[in-house]
Amino acid sequence: MSTTYLRIEQSLGLHGQTDLVGAKNAVLVIIASLILTEGKSVLTNVPCSDDVLQMIDLLTDLGAQISFCKEEHRLEVDTRTLIKCKVKPDIMKKMRASILVMGPLLVRFGKTDVAAPGGCVIGTRPINFHLENFRKMGVQLEQQGDFISAQADTLKSGKLILEYPSVGATENLMMAATLTPGTTKIINAALEPEVLALVDVLQKMGAKIKIAPPASIEIEGVTSLQPIEHSIIPDRLETGALLLAAAITGGSIYLPQARADMLDIFLFKLQEMGHLIHVGPQDVGIKLTACSRPKAVSIKTAPYPGFPTDLQAPMMAAQCLAEGTSIVEETVFENRLLHIGELQKMGAQIKVDHNKATITGVEELYGTQVIATDIRASCALVLAGMAAKGTTLMTGIHHFRRGYEALEKKLILLGASIQQQETCDVLAPETILLDQKEKSAF
Ligand code: UD1
């Protein structure tokens, strides 16, 4: 059987400047929000990652007319022809973000049929906060196994309380509330930059939305929303990956479009490691110059503005090579530590206790055969591979393709040696070790 993998050679001293794509987690929900309008919207700076293509397929299947110019990153979506409110289960299963069409379809059609969404295996990932609050809004739900039928002739406004500031639940409920008569208040809402990007879009469409301190969103329902033209914000997670690429390889990088105001704690931790960070005027543009031997730092993931769970795995790759002991506590997704086993194969010294990892920094990692188990784990392994001695072969690259648009092309331009290859038999670990020994002999 043929296997596709990334072959990553040690690539020290990455250096240069690169542009950023639009944020995947912002564009997915923004595409879903177009269901609330009837007309043609234009989105620019749209990344061409596999999850975005899935969301395009989902809306196309519902009847929307879509054209995507991948080279220009320009997406045109005409929702006048959108006639279906039943989402195909196989599309739902491909990614978690598919659940975000539930709120918009409910207000547009008064009903929808969806299936439990798929996505990365990083925890149980229930959708109870979405469903409980839709019920509070007067939606009748019938659940049979993985299938959910939802119906509501009119939705009710009122107070919705989230036990945890879930990004997806906040987005879904906020979208439904924009066209629900009266005032809806979401208490303990998520305020991630991607949620605020959705607020911007909905306001452009004509929605009345206010952020109320400390963490509530108030939505006053309107009767209709207009199509929009909108440019997607730069991806803070790609920003993090590129900064870490320079940091872990002992290089330097300049990202002129990067938004430092979306990454405060992450940048603070990179500085604490010893890396030099320079931020441009109005918090736009970030330059990182790596220090020669980074120091250990501890992190605890938390909802924004805490340390982003999506940067926990990539950061861990760098912590493996930092001097001293780092502690990582994952509080958002209980199962988001699957990359640890793979980093250990590369020589990382990590002990795990439930959701806590204790990392003792090593001088070197070694390339070997590793498996990416989710989007951010794939990024961590590519980063570790660039720093590791010898050759790293990473399978499970569909995760990498789901989350990043050609990140490896950017890394290659900065000096990395990464190649996608196909083989009938992936090299056995002994072969890779031999490969490393041969290399180190020269
Ligand atoms: C989004 C992001 C994902 C990021 C995450 C947290 C997208 C497409 N994905 O995912 O990259 O890692 O935010 O920043 O934007 N939970 C429940 N019940 C629910 C909903 C969530 O228990 O109904 C739990 C989850 O299991 C998890 C936590 O709440 O433990 C946070 O999940 P949530 O913020 O909803 O993440 P997503 O929206 O799925």
Structure in words:
With about 450 residues, the chain is α+β, with helices and mostly antiparallel strands. It has two domains: about 5-20 and about 235-440, UDP-n-acetylglucosamine1-carboxyvinyl-transferase, Chain (Alpha-beta prism); about 25-160, UDP-n-acetylglucosamine1-carboxyvinyl-transferase, Chain, CATH 3.65.10.10. About 35% of the residues lie in helices and about 25% in strands. It contains 15 helices and 23 strands. The protein has helices spanning about 25-35, 50-60, 90-95, 100-110, 130-135, 165-180, 195-205, 235-250, 265-275, 310-320, 340-345, 375-385, 395-405, 405-415, 430-440; strands at about 5-10, 15, 40-45, 65-70, 75-80, 110-115, 140-145, 145-150, 160, 185, 210, 215-220, 230, 250-260, 275-280, 285-290, 300, 325-330, 350-355, 355-360, 370, 390-395, 415-425. A hairpin with a 2-residue loop joins strand 7 and strand 8 (about 145-150). Residues about 430-440 have low confidence and may be disordered. Bound molecules: uridine-diphosphate-N-acetylglucosamine.
Quick recap:
The chain has helices spanning 24-33, 50-62, 89-94, 102-109, 128-136, 167-178, 193-205, 236-248, 264-273, 312-319, 339-345, 375-387, 397-403, 407-413, 429-440, and strands spanning 3-9, 15-17, 40-44, 65-69, 74-78, 111-115, 140-144, 147-151, 158-161, 183-187, 208-212, 216-220, 229-231, 252-259, 276-279, 284-289, 299-300, 325-329, 349-353, 356-360, 369-371, 391-395, 417-423. With 442 residues, it is α+β, with helices and mostly antiparallel strands. The strands form six sheets. The protein has a four-stranded mixed beta sheet, with helices on both faces.
